[in-house]
Specification:
The two termini are 25 Å apart. This protein is α/β, with parallel strands linked by helices. The chain has 16 helices and ten strands. The chain has an eight-stranded mixed sheet with strand order 1-4-3-2-5-8-7-9, with helices on both faces. A two-stranded antiparallel ribbon has the order 6-10. The structure holds 2-acetamido-2-deoxy-beta-D-glucopyranose (7 copies). GO terms for molecular function: hexosyltransferase activity.
Length: 427
């Protein structure tokens, strides 16, 4: 994508620098002969203005007005905040203003919890997630609203450079042409900001092609995943009220959408305020106080506690969409805490009156051995590997797993659903 754009731009410049003077010289001679000097000057000035205006408009449309004047090396060596404001300039045509919704009595009922504020003990300078009033760098506001009968919006937390994993997800389980008769699905990939301008341009090119990505105004990093999740809640609140369900996953996950549509969603279709997930009960997950642990949390946070309140493992979380605006509202009152699963599926929802958790374990969440099981399909047609979620270590594995999931489903249900012919992605 990137190299194409560059080539196009080089071509564009060449056209003016190489053939421009020839055309101009020819026109000058013609004009001088027939009009005289004053009229010729007028014609030359008009032509030049036209060229400048056209070139400028074209560049605005490409969003490269600022970029053209910048030395890329200089940009890359700048401190992070410099790069951030640069990205803002470059992409300002894509930045959108967020709309505020009027509060229903239900949302008004959500109030801060002082005890929780004390436990989280966020530093005063970054008390609430920065995403709460943040802008988007790029978004497709119509992703949901342009779709009738949207059953599921799939939200994927993804790393900026995971282009291939996103592609695999689009081609496989998030592609509803494979299960359109059961429901309509759309996918939205959530991203933060990057320092690398070239990476940013590649992401923008990908966005222009698929229009299924949302980039927020915060640095994309492991300890900023809470910001990513809150951005998801915010965007769904503003732009995706028409989806029935929200399914949150990560970019290394494959979901068996056939099991989701036939066995999970029907159980919750008439329910409200539901979070369906791999539920971690209160007082079961330790808070790690050992400094070398990946999830180390200082004794200043959750002082005196040894374990977390209830939450969900974030690799698969299903919500009835009615509850999202309430969780987003609650997040605006929940001080920032970087352990994303605890914050997004525990602390923030804990403010919402009437919220209900259901466990997914009866739909067999076992994911580490799942691909092996699907690989041995012929021996396992008696549904012994009916797993809802598997982990994938690389894009090829996602594709193989999805093909096996389709085969299993076709075998079990028969061909009455007339699934579209699937290319065998293993070859
Ligand atoms: C949406 O669902 C309604 C009711 O089930 C149906 O009448 C309509 O045709 C559907 N629209 C689309 C575009 O599938
Ligand atoms: C979704 O699957 C269909 C059918 O295989 C395919 O034509 C289409 O290109 C896929 N979409 C994407 C984004 O890969
Ligand atoms: C999280 O994002 C904010 C806003 O961009 C930034 O100031 C902060 O340094 C980031 N934190 C980490 C740990 O990356
Ligand atoms: C949900 O409601 C519809 C319409 O009232 C009904 O047909 C369906 O059986 C209900 N589903 C469940 C799981 O209760
Ligand atoms: C909150 O954190 C500060 C340091 O950031 C610490 O001095 C204070 O004791 C903490 N309060 C509690 C209740 O843990
Ligand atoms: C799959 O089949 C192979 C060879 O038959 C066997 O070694 C392996 O244990 C099987 N794995 C599973 C998960 O059934
Ligand atoms: C599947 O189950 C049926 C009856 O429950 C049994 O006869 C058959 O042998 C099983 N098939 C396999 C491959 O285990």
């Amino acid at each position: 994508m990137l190299s194409q754009t560059k080539t196009q731009r080089v071509k564009l410049k060449r056209r003016w620098t190489l053939t421009g003077p020839d055309i101009l010289g020819y026109l000058l001679k013609m004009c001088q002969r027939s009009l005289g000097n004053i009229a010729t000057a007028a014609v030359v000035i008009s032509i030049l203005s036209l060229v400048i205006i056209l070139n400028f408009t074209d560049n605005i449309q490409r969003g490269i007005v600022q970029r053209k004047n910048l030395d890329i090396k200089q940009v890359q060596n700048r401190p992070y905040l410099g790069a951030r404001s640069l990205i803002k300039q470059v992409t300002k045509t894509m930045v959108s203003q967020h709309t505020t919704t009027t509060l229903s009595p239900e949302l008004m009922a959500i109030t801060p919890q002082l005890e929780l504020d004390r436990l989280i003990n966020a530093s005063s300078k970054e008390k609430y997630p920065v995403t709460i009033n943040g802008k988007y760098i790029f978004e497709n506001p119509q992703l949901c609203s342009s779709v009738a009968n949207l059953s599921v919006l799939i939200i994927v937390h993804t790393a900026p450079d995971h282009f291939k994993m996103r592609l695999a997800i689009r081609r496989t389980w998030a592609n509803d042409t494979y299960y359109r008769k059961m429901g309509v699905a759309r996918v939205l990939f959530l991203l933060g900001q990057v320092e690398d301008l070239e990476l940013q341009m590649k992401m923008e090119a990908e966005f222009k092609e698929y229009r299924d990505m949302l980039q927020g105004d915060f640095r994309d990093s492991y300890r900023n995943l809470t910001h990513k999740g809150v951005m998801g809640y915010k965007w769904i609140t503003e732009r995706c009220r028409n989806a029935k369900f929200i399914l949150k996953t990560d970019d290394d996950i494959v979901v068996n959408m056939f099991i989701l549509f036939t066995r999970v969603l029907p159980k919750f279709e008439n329910k409200t305020k539901q979070i369906v997930c791999n539920h971690v009960l209160a007082n079961t997950m330790s808070i790690f106080r050992d400094k070398i642990n990946k999830w180390y949390v200082s004794e200043h946070n959750f002082r005196g506690k040894h374990s977390y309140p209830e939450y969900c493992s974030g690799f698969i979380v299903l919500f009835t969409n009615d509850v999202i605006p309430a969780i987003f509202r609650a997040a605006t009152m929940t001080p920032f805490f970087w352990v994303d699963d605890v914050y997004l599926y525990g602390l923030a929802p804990s403010h919402v009156p009437g919220i209900k958790y259901s466990s997914l374990t009866e739909h067999a969440l076992i994911w580490s051995t799942a691909l092996n099981c699907y690989r041995n399909m012929t021996e396992n047609f008696n549904n012994t590997c009916d797993v809802l979620v598997t982990k994938s270590w690389h894009p090829g594995e996602s594709e193989e797993t999805w093909v096996e999931m389709i085969k299993q489903f076709e075998h079990r249900i028969g061909t009455d659903l007339s699934l579209p012919a699937h290319p065998d992605m293993r070859t």
